[in-house]
Amino acid sequence: MSTDRYTDIEELTLDLREFAHARNWEYVHSPKNLASALIVEAAELLEHFQWMEPQESFQLEPEKKQEVAHEMADVFIYLTRMADRLGIDLLAAAKEKMHLNTQKYPA
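Predicted structure:
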């Protein structure tokens, strides 16, 4: 990995691409497989909040918060890798979607 902290999504994308290439994982990193893996990780994230009252979810113990952060990172990593494999600019897609949401849900 190139730094201790990523400064942009392109840097993360390149590191993820290199990480997968070094392990010969391209053949299993199809969009379908990455979408499946993303859903599994999202379920693992949700599991941390299962049966909590909504207010409790704001007050995580430090160890639980770190576990949640790791699950969130897994979701983000799979989403970023999937976008790379499909040639989708996630930030541009998010900006476009926010514009559409602004129109659909005016303040």
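Summary: Helices lie at 9-22, 31-47, 62-86, 90-104.
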